[in-house]
User: Fold this.
Amino acid sequence: MSQDQDIIMKSQENQKKYKYMAAALIEAKKAESMNEVPVGAVVVYQDKIISRAYNIRESKQLIHGHAEFLAMIKAAKKLGTWRLEDCEIYVTMEPCPMCAGAMIQSRIKKVYYGVEDPKSGVATSLCSLFDLPFNHKVESEGLLMDLESEKLLKEFFKKLRKK
Ligand SMILES: [Zn+2]
Assistant:
């Protein structure tokens, strides 16, 4: 492949990544409007978004009410299988152990996440769960549009403190 083609392909890949993360950010905003911690996620299959979800832990009092967990459940329903090996997931914040575990269990191909979570993130913050030798290896790439998701979270917690 020539260098020019390589550059063009990389830029097209990046455009896609930003497009999908932007869709996840729109989900995060929906959570915010319901006074939920603003985190959103989308699952992508064959270059199409097949499921979207946002954090609903408080409003539904759901243990597994995290955006990425719900997006995976919806994707599995849509595809009629729990095996999400041809899917990629975009989530605006680094996944927690529960969600990272579900990604490994559902054999998700790759996770893209936004801002790191020093309190419960396990992609890189507290540990690197995806680097452990499980039977399925989830690829991960962080800090995609992290400033945007960080801004949403910061504004949310600022408002919460004022209440
Ligand atoms: Zn989680």
About this structure: The radius of gyration is 16 Å. The helical segments are 3-33, 57-60, 67-79, 97-105, 146-162.
